[in-house]
Hints:
Layout: H1 6-22, H2 28-35, H3 40-52, E1 56-58, E2 66-68, E3 75-82, E4 87-88, E5 96-97, E6 108-114, E7 128-132, E8 142-147, E9 150-158, E10 162-166, E11 175-178, E12 184-194, E13 196-197, E14 200-201
Amino acid sequence: MRPITERQREILAFIEETIRLRALAPTIREICDHFGFASPRAAQEHLRTLVRKGLITKEPGKARALRVLHPSDGIPIVGDVAAGTPIMAIENARGNLDFKDLFGAGELFAVLVHGESMTGCGILDGDYVIVRSQPTVEDGAIAVAYLDGEATVKRFRRTRGGYCLQPENPAYPPIIVRESNTDFRLAGPVVGVIRQAKGGFR
């Protein structure tokens, strides 16, 4: 593959992830919004470069006519989660982790952990957690959840009136969620943890 810049790599990953999640490529406007481009011209120039380098194809005259020619087989990194208080959910593609065969069947994604609320179960600040994308998880499972537009990783427990997102560090309080809260959803259970070490993952 011909070398590409970091920004082109990010755009390529974003296109691939959008197609994977929605079965549709992003529009020029969506690419501009995602990367903060002030003008469509910047996005179009990056796309022309990716076409020239043989990484995507684009059919003229169609808004969603992008196709990735060499899609990655890895696990997409789609953002960050908090092991502490929730942080703003950023579902943006950051590349891929090539460990998919280790974590079983299902649609998987990876998120980077910030904070220390899950140290008691071996999830540390800076780890990647591997999540199986599904709308429900077993009671007591460690899961990634979205609450009020923010994401966090916690042990999920059902209560009489809703849910409890339980940390695994006594320094952090549980997060109580009412069943009626429409701004709560589960991203899926955590099925693995990958820790970065100097020189690569371990």
